[in-house]
Amino acid sequence: MCYEVRSRTVVGMSTLTTSSRTRPAAPARPRARLDWRLRFGALSLIWGFSFLLIKVGTEGYAPFQVTLGRLVFGTAVLVTAMAVKRERLPRGARPWGHMAVAAFLLNALPFSLFAYSELTIPSTLAGICNATSPLWGMALSLVALSEDRPTRVRVAGLGLGFLGVLTVLGAWQGFHGLDATGTAMALLASLSYPVGWIYVRRTLAGTGNSHLSMTGGQLLLATVQLAVVTPLFTGVPEHFALVPLLAVAGLGVLGTGLAVLIQYGLVAEVGPTTAQMVTYFIPVIATAAGVAILGESLRWTTPVGAVIVLAGAALTQVRGKRA
After folding, report:
1. What is the pTM assigned to this prediction?
2. Residue whose C-alpha is closest to residue 201's, from 243, 285, 145, 153
3. d(CA 153, CA 159)
4. How far is residue 267's CA from residue 273's CA, in Å, rounded to a whole number?
5. 3-state DSSP call for residue 156?
6. 200 within 8 A of 5, measured Cβ to Cβ
7. Could you report the per-residue pLDDT of 65-117, keeping only the tens digit for each?
8. Are 96 and 221 in contact (CB under 8 A)?
9. CB 234 within 8 A of CB 117
10. Number of H helices, E strands in the chain
11. What does each C-alpha distance from 81 to 44, 76, 247, 260 come to in angstroms?
12. Nearest Cα to 109, choosing from 22, 199, 23, 188?
């Protein structure tokens, strides 16, 4: 997750500055970069496999321990990137106060909820629940963001998406064989993301700090939050299981640290609309990984409902023509 609102502002300002110069400076020698499509695919794989890694991690450690480890490794990646680029953490009590709330809503809370949910539900279902974030975001933006006007297409997408959720859950069968608590936690985690981004948009957009420093500070605060909470609910592990530990490390280094850097690069290069399309590949990869590697069972309602959810989510992102 990254500060996409801030990224849009930076890109727009950069374009304006370049076009206003009467004598453009000599172009810098371009650095060899991996094609954005390959980075897009890598990001899809990383986040798609994150739900499998959560499941493996919870087989050896308590959910809060998985989340804390994830944040520790992820923060280490961001701090290293900041050191390489010689960036400093934001200054001032006000930004840090807002970042603490963002850290809770975008990291500490959803990461913990997903970890707890996967104690009782398969990783495939958790990945599909994650895909409902655009639906929650659209519904919330109609209330919280006055400039985000509804259209018939977007409202239809919202209804279609939640119909897909009911299909995944097998509502007409009375949710037979479904753990209600675990599923509710996964859905609440997906709801936490748009709530957090609306808060960020209202409080942290245009602060003058870079994406990297803001995200680094946010992960640092989330790590502190989990470091305080975890000892209250869990003790020190009696032994450190290797495979679950590797899963937690991979979840942090790749899914929380490297993924943020890749996402920001994509937003800056191809724009937030294209970059956010990765959301629609995550449940597909999460489902394939859960079935193929973990041997999780798959009812027909799961893939069919997932397709309906993704179709609805895509429609909620359709913008009407500006007058």
Report:
1. 0.83
2. 145
3. 10
4. 8
5. helix
6. yes
7. 999 999 999 999 999 999 999 999 998 899 999 999 999 999 999 999 999 99
8. yes
9. no
10. 15, 0
11. 21, 9, 22, 11
12. 188
